[in-house]
Structures are given as structure tokens and as C-alpha cells.
Write a structure and sequence with these properties.
Blueprint lengths: L5 H6 L4 E3 L13 E3 L4 H13 L4 E4 L16 E4 L6 E5 L4 E5 L4 H9 L3 E2 L10 H7 L6 H4 L2 H4 E7 L5 E5 L11 H5 L8 E8 L1 E2 L3 E9 L2 H12 L7 E7 L2 E10 L1 H15 L4 E3 L21 E8 L5 H13 L3 E8 L4 E8 L1 H17 L4 E5 L2 H4 L11 H11 L15
Parallel strand pairs: 2-4, 3-4
Antiparallel strand pairs: 1-2, 5-6, 6-10, 7-11, 8-9, 8-10, 12-14, 12-15, 13-14, 13-17, 16-18, 16-19, 17-18
Helix pairs in contact: 8-10, 10-11
The structure holds flavin-adenine dinucleotide.
């Protein structure tokens, strides 16, 4: 192994390996992979890294490491997967405390036996730390809120190794500066999350999906408006869209009879052609996916878009227009009732770059934004993945306060933070 600093080796009790090509973050190769097993070891790793001027990128399963910018420099990947202990499940209080390296799927299994769940269902499963650090959530965000609304406490390690705790295990907690919310969505640039406390929800006895095929953006908009304002209060409203048409689907949950009645009422509200199923459409909650970025020699680019609810139709209309241009196809899947979704652009690089800019303008026109999550290098080189940011000065000052040396994931976040 390239001579690792003694303090770094000691810090993670020998769990330090030489990095391989697989450990690169967007083409930036680290020298070592450190796998601390406790918050104290994470603290020691960060203190040693800061003392030696080493740059660190935290990693869970690595499923979203391709999101954001490449780090400006990288010496150590801090692998969190040994922080996978379920610390506490207080079923009576609907509270769970877990190590950040535990997988979301394992955590859902942990609590399922008590008839409970964590109201996050991201389209790809990673660790809890990665889910929180990227702020990703799936269809249930409509009912349960975004990830930051489910996090009630957090233990984190600052770049200099100082351990900080925020919030706690009680749902109501007035702790002043809300570190847990700040770290949610920070892409590993502000601290290493080591433990998270979540509020849980009971699993309802019955689920029904009401689905309508829609032919054009106006019909999609009307269906989404109907569902978003429905007195039956769907748990989730999702849309799947390609080539100018798609499906809008809503999830109803509750006691069996009531859920059946609610679903029938929702179906009547949506009009002819709406169907009630006891299973989700096959596309529900799954990722459009851009893993194979160069499939067929084409540029595949995954863009996360936000929009006002009333902007659903116009955004879908714009996506349809984009895919009518030569050399590119565009599909969309997301949660229009909370204004968050993903578009997948596939085609020649020039056409994909133009479509990405077009999508960004279309999202801005409906009160939202577009962030490129995954793209091949030749697309990435020609677009600003984050796009224009508001409050950049504030973000820079937060970063400067948390990590003045730029040790943690330098350059990964918006504005090169
Ligand atoms: C350096 C730094 C400073 C921060 N300062 C603050 C602060 O002062 N106040 C505060 O409340 N939070 C702050 N945060 C936390 C971060 O902004 C939270 O992730 C954000 O508040 C939650 O984003 P969201 O509501 O869009 O959540 P979600 O909708 O869940 O967003 C998920 C992720 O996408 C990112 N994202 C989406 N669109 C854009 C975009 N156009 N530009 C940039 N990022 C985008 C979000 O930051 C987040 O990472 C800071 C984070 C960092 C890294």
C-alpha cells in the first residue's frame, strides 16, 4: 500500500485499504479507502485527514456517487458500510435510531415485524446516510414529507473530527440550529453522518392503486389536479410519461373496506378508463435509470426536475416537444403532486446537451429547477450540473464555517462548494 499516514491507519483500527479503480468518484481516484466502524473512529479518521491535508469523500453503497460534481481533490474514500448497527427501535414511540451505513431495505425489514415503516421509498436503495445526504425520497413523499421531515435527530462528524449531535429521539425538539436539516441534501460536503433518528409510521392494512392512461399533457394535468385536491387524500400520486402520453396513478391506503370505497370514488372522479388495482403499476417507484450512460453509443442523461403542481402539464408538454427534436428521446417519471421528478434524455451528445438546457428553461418557467444527476463525461463537460443556485453566498459561508480547509468532498456541491 502507498504509505498511509500512521494516524489514519490507527484511526480506523486497521480497516484501511489501497484504493482501486472502482473507488474513483467521477473519474477522480482516491489513494485509500477507510472503513471506520464507530462514530469515534470516523472522528479519528477525519481528524487525521484534516491534520494531513487529505481530502475525503464519504461513501455508502456508492449508488449516487455519480451525482454532483467530481471532487476537486480526493485522497480518502470514507466507507460507511460498517456503521450498520440498528441502535434502537422504540416501537411504542414510532422512533428508530440507526447507524448511517445500514441499508434502507434492511431498515424497512427491521421495523416491518412491528407493522411499521420509514416513509421513504427512494427508487434505488442505498444506505441511510446516502439517502439523507442526497435528500432523495420516492412516491410516499406526498403523505410523509421529504426526508428532512422524517429525520428527528442526527449524529455527525465535522471535517475537523468534532462529533456533533442534533435533535434527539423525541419528535418535538427545539434545539435551535437545525443541523440535521442542514446536513440533509448536503452531498457529504458539511459532515459525515454517522447515526440518524427517524420518526416511523404504521403500515396500513390495505393498499389500492387507481391508474388512468393519459393522452397528452392537458389530460395529465387534469388528472393530477383532481388527485391532488381529492378528499380521499392519496398517499402518493405518480406519473410515467414518454412520447406524449403516459399514466397517472394514485395510491390509497387504510382499512380494507374504506380503502376500496375511496379507490372507487377516486376512479369515478378521474373518469372513464380509470382502473383500480391491488398492486402498483410495474413502473411505480422504479428508477428511469441511466446507469449505462453510453448504451448504444448515445448519451444518457438523468435530470432531476422540480415544478409547481400547476406546471405539471406544461412541463410534460415541454418534455414531449424535446423528444420531437431530431436525435433525442425524453421520458419522465415522478411525483407531480409534490413537484419532483426525473427526466431521462437519450440520444446524440449535442442533442442531449440542447435538451438538457431546454429542460432547465422549461422547469424554470414553471417555478422549478433542473439538476443533472447522471450524465456521460462528454455531456457533463458541457452543462453546469447544478444550474443556477439561489442563496449561494449563504451556502458558501455555511461551508466555510463547517469545513474551512475544504476537506470534505471539495467542489462536489452547487457553486463548486
Ligand atoms: C454548503 C451548504 C449550505 C447549506 N445552507 C443551508 C441553509 O442555509 N439553509 C438550509 O435550509 N439548508 C442549507 N443547506 C442544506 C441543503 O440546501 C438542503 O439540502 C436543502 O435545504 C434541502 O433541499 P430541498 O428542499 O430542495 O430538498 P430536496 O427537494 O429533497 O432536494 C434534494 C437535493 O437536491 C438538491 N437540489 C435540488 N435542486 C437544486 C438546485 N437547483 N441547486 C442546488 N441544489 C439543488 C438539494 O440541495 C438536495 O441536495 C446547505 C447545504 C450545503 C451543502
Amino acid at each position: 500500500m502507498a504509505a498511509a499516514p500512521e494516524a489514519l491507519l490507527r484511526a480506523c483500527d486497521g480497516y484501511l485499504t489501497e484504493a482501486s479503480d472502482d473507488d474513483a468518484v467521477l473519474g477522480m481516484a482516491p489513494r485509500w479507502v477507510a472503513s471506520p466502524g464507530t462514530t469515534a473512529q470516523v472522528s479519528a479518521v477525519m481528524a487525521a485527514a484534516t491534520a494531513d491535508g487529505l481530502a475525503v469523500v464519504p461513501r455508502g453503497t456508492g449508488s449516487k456517487l455519480g451525482w454532483g460534481n467530481p471532487p476537486r481533490r480526493l485522497d480518502v474514500v470514507l466507507d460507511t458500510t460498517r456503521l450498520d448497527t440498528l441502535v434502537e427501535h422504540a416501537a411504542g414511540d414510532l422512533i428508530l435510531v440507526t447507524g448511517a451505513g445500514r441499508r434502507l431495505t434492511a431498515l424497512q425489514d427491521d421495523v416491518a415485524g412491528s407493522g411499521q415503516r420509514l416513509g421513504i421509498d427512494p427508487t434505488r436503495s442505498g444506505t441511510i446516510g446516502g439517502t439523507v445526504a442526497t435528500g432523495t425520497s420516492g412516491p410516499m413523499r406526498l403523505r410523509h414529507g421529504a426526508v428532512r421531515d422524517l429525520v428527528i435527530g442526527m449524529t455527525l462528524v465535522r471535517a475537523d473530527g468534532v462529533v456533533a449531535k442534533s435533535g434527539g429521539k423525541v419528535v418535538k425538539n427545539v434545539a435551535g440550529y437545525d443541523l440535521a436539516k442542514l446536513l440533509t441534501g448536503s452531498f457529504g460536503t458539511l459532515g459525515v453522518i454517522t447515526e440518524v433518528a427517524f420518526r416511523l409510521h404504521p403500515v396500513p392494512p390495505a393498499r389500492r392503486w387507481v391508474t388512468l392512461a393519459v393522452d397528452g399533457p392537458e389530460q395529465a394535468q387534469a388528472a393530477v389536479q383532481e388527485l391532488a385536491h381529492s378528499q380521499q387524500a392519496p398517499v402518493a400520486v405518480e406519473v410515467d410519461w414518454a412520447e406524449g402520453r403516459g399514466e397517472v396513478s394514485a395510491l390509497l391506503e387504510g382499512h380494507a373496506d374504506a380503502t376500496e370505497d375511496c379507490a372507487e370514488t377516486v376512479a369515478r372522479g378521474l373518469g372513464d378508463g380509470a382502473r383500480v388495482d391491488d398492486h402498483a403499476p410495474d413502473w411505480w417507484g422504479t428508477d428511469l435509470g441511466a446507469a449505462d450512460l453510453h448504451a448504444d453509443g448515445a448519451g444518457r442523461t438523468l435530470v432531476r426536475t422540480t415544478h409547481e403542481i400547476a406546471g405539471t402539464g406544461p412541463l410534460l408538454g415541454s418534455i414531449t416537444s424535446l423528444s420531437e427534436a431530431p436525435g433525442v428521446s425524453a421520458a419522465y417519471r415522478g411525483s407531480p403532486a409534490v413537484g419532483v421528478g426525473c427526466a431521462l434524455l437519450v440520444g446524440e451528445v449535442d442533442a442531449v446537451v440542447a435538451a438538457t438546457e431546454g429542460l432547465r428553461a422549461a422547469a424554470a418557467a414553471v417555478g422549478g429547477a433542473a439538476v443533472v444527476l447522471e450524465a456521460p463525461d462528454d455531456v457533463r463537460a458541457r452543462v453546469d450540473v447544478w444550474g443556477p443556485a439561489t442563496a449561494l453566498d449563504l451556502m458558501r459561508s455555511v461551508k466555510a464555517r463547517f469545513d474551512p480547509e475544504g476537506t470534505l468532498a471539495p467542489g462536489r456541491f452547487v457553486g463548486g462548494i
